[in-house]
Amino acid sequence: MEHIFRSSITRRQVLLNVSRLGAGALAAPWLARLAAAAEGGRRPNILFIMSDDHASHALSCYGSRINRTPHLDRLAAQGARFENAFCTNSICGPSRATVLTGKYSHIHGVRRNGDRFDGSQPTFIKLLRDAGYQTAVIGKWHLTSDPTGFDHWNILPGQGRYYDPELILMGRRSVHKGYVTDVLTDLSIEYLSQRDPNRPFCLMCHHNASHRPWEPSPRYAQMYEDQDIPLPPTFNDDWSGRTAPAREQEMTIERHLTRTDLKQDPPAGLSGQRLKEWKYQRFIKDYLRCVAALDDNVGRLMDWLDESKLADNTIVVYTSDNGFFLGDHGWFDKRFMYEQALRVPLLIRWPGVTPAGAVIRELVINADYAPTFLDAAGIAVPGDIQGRSLRGVLAGRAPQDWRKSMYYRYYEFPQPHHAPPHYGVRTDRYKLFHYHTIDQWEMFDLEKDPHELRSVYDDPAYADVRQELKKELARLQRELRDTPA
């Protein structure tokens, strides 16, 4: 019963939990003590901040070589930094549906951008609201249907624009003057300031930065102007060590960035490698300028919690909907199961649970957020949720049966970017994925080849590893109720 005490749930929920144990399981004094503990306890608030396309290697707390993120670093220092956090489908809409439901794309139904999210299905937000939480989402939604389960919603239409953004407040459209990242934070603070202080809240603050076309705040327009950003180690990758999709994609810095992305025509006379590097500098500087404003606004939200005396009872999460190629392999965008797109930043500060400065190496996925929030609120996690609560992992007591592998599946093809559908498995050392529409496989030894430059799928020395990974892939597909193609 220790877990029930620590969850700080309501008296009614305690009695429901006790009733599941059977009438004779607890004596009357235990019932009274449990009910009293629930009445006096405080369920934690939840502030979930999600950015768009923010690669983990563009946070200095993750060792970035190209920028500094002091406010995100502060969050990491006060909470936990996850070294192996991954998305299950590296694209905007499907990732957001996974966060809400704790389920994979083939279950919640959003496989591609543009798929309509069925708002009648269960979400963690609905369960929190039913348990007395105030629920809100502000910012990027990108799920076609209107939000459900929220007391308050104020969302960007589609991707949303960077300057003077239009927002839809509970069905009513209006334009807000200013830079979108600042505006969304202003609206979030306004909502929090006007909430009922006697009830816990869950606010999902969803930024559209740092998504294409990477338009920076005017205050950062000149940032990095007098310096060159270092090229990534794989910038000039020729993709020779992989299958056809790596060569046939349409997301190269060299050929696929547009004038809208670059904001100007290249200088006369540039060609070849010099032109490619010029394009990279134009792209990466604007991308990092967008990240700088993101970092500022995470700091504003954390400062507001401190000033409002709420920090000690608020779980703060920062993550991104997916990873992003920052010139890695000569690319931008995401979609592929390669590390830069698969991996996401994940920082969690949970006072009383997370030791300050913790570094967590267990494999976690974005389907884990929903059950974590339900667990924090003392709500039973539905049996059909495919993620797992991170409470034990955050406390340094990962369950012995914690996952040793994770499953990924991407669907959208042929446009944009011509990345073929594929599914795969990743362990702490190895990765195997299958482009099933063209029947091509890739496999990597991440310990020996962290940049994923040479597939070892056909290497006889890895025959046993390949066989074990295929078995694990099949097991995960059965467990997750996905049909292999």
Give a description of the structure.
- The chain is of the alpha/beta class and 485 residues long.
- The chain has 3 domains: 2-40, no CATH class; 45-217 and 280-397, Alkaline Phosphatase, subunit A, CATH 3.40.720.10; 408-479, Arylsulfatase, C-terminal domain (2-Layer Sandwich), CATH 3.30.1120.
- Helices cover 32% and strands 16% of the residues.
- It has 15 helices and 16 strands.
- The chain has helices at residues 2-7, 11-21, 28-40, 70-78, 92-101, 105-108, 124-130, 180-194, 244-248, 259-262, 272-307, 339-342, 369-376, 391-394, 463-479, and strands at 45-51, 80-82, 85-86, 134-140, 152-156, 166-169, 172-175, 201-206, 314-320, 346-349, 358-360, 364-365, 405-410, 422-427, 430-435, 440-445.
- The strands form 3 sheets. The protein has a 10-stranded mixed sheet, with helices on both faces. A 4-stranded antiparallel sheet has the order 13-14-15-16, with helices on one face. Strands 3-12 form a two-stranded parallel sheet.
- A hairpin with a 4-residue loop joins strand 15 and strand 16 (440-445).
- Helix 2 (11-21) packs antiparallel against helix 3.
- The two termini are 44 Å apart.
Q: How is the secondary structure organized here?
A:
Blueprint: H1 2-7, H2 11-21, H3 28-40, E1 45-51, H4 70-78, E2 80-82, E3 85-86, H5 92-101, H6 105-108, H7 124-130, E4 134-140, E5 152-156, E6 166-169, E7 172-175, H8 180-194, E8 201-206, H9 244-248, H10 259-262, H11 272-307, E9 314-320, H12 339-342, E10 346-349, E11 358-360, E12 364-365, H13 369-376, H14 391-394, E13 405-410, E14 422-427, E15 430-435, E16 440-445, H15 463-479
Parallel strand pairs: 1-8, 1-9, 2-11, 3-12, 4-5, 4-8
Antiparallel strand pairs: 2-10, 5-6, 6-7, 9-10, 13-14, 14-15, 15-16
